[in-house]
């Protein structure tokens, strides 16, 4: 059986022994991967930063219950995925409660390709990006997260199921539904050769 990274294990033991500053070592070590998955789930940098903070805060509060049966990175990753899903659900509820009001223009911002590209290329990249974002927004929170974890983060079906707190077959179905919906929404982008 593979054991947890000894550096993480030592840091956890130090924190549990009273050296609260050692938790910062874990935060520094794992922040980038948590931010990456949080951003891909929420689609928003500010939300992703909040998710990372919330995940590490929850992890700190529950650290005494961490049993080291899995790696710390896997444990905190699952917490971050759940925090990101919660954030997306709250945002969707907030949007549903503000029907008829204008949306935040920053939230619908489209990131375009490098400014060195020509105007035609920039316009096309912007349109493609907008279609991709719209397609991702058409997915449910579970579908989007399952798709991101599988096809962007390259996680296994079992890891996706564990992160989402669902059965492996349900995780596979969520990925399948996401792919089907994205194919349908992005079909106009297909170019015939």
Itemize the secondary structure elements and their pairings.
Elements: H1 6-16, H2 23-42, H3 45-61, H4 72-97, H5 119-137, H6 141-152, H7 157-164, H8 168-186
Describe this structure in words.
- With 193 residues, the protein is mainly α.
- It has two domains: 1-97, Rna Polymerase Sigma Factor, Chain: A, CATH 1.10.1740; 111-188, Winged helix-like DNA-binding domain superfamily/Winged helix DNA-binding domain (Arc Repressor Mutant, subunit A, Orthogonal Bundle).
- Helix content is 68%, strand content 0%.
- The longest helix has 26 residues, at 72-97.
CATH level 4 superfamily of the largest domain: RNA polymerase sigma factor, region 2, helix turn helix motif
SS summary, helix count: 8
Structural class: mainly alpha
String of helices and strands: HHHHHHHH
How far apart lie the N and C ends? 49 Å
Largest sheet data: none
Task: Please report the total strand number as a whole number.
Answer: 0
**What is the percentage of strand-forming residues?**
under 5%
Q: What are the defining features of this structure?
A:
Rna Polymerase Sigma Factor, Chain: A; mainly alpha; 193 residues; Arc Repressor Mutant, subunit A; 8 helices
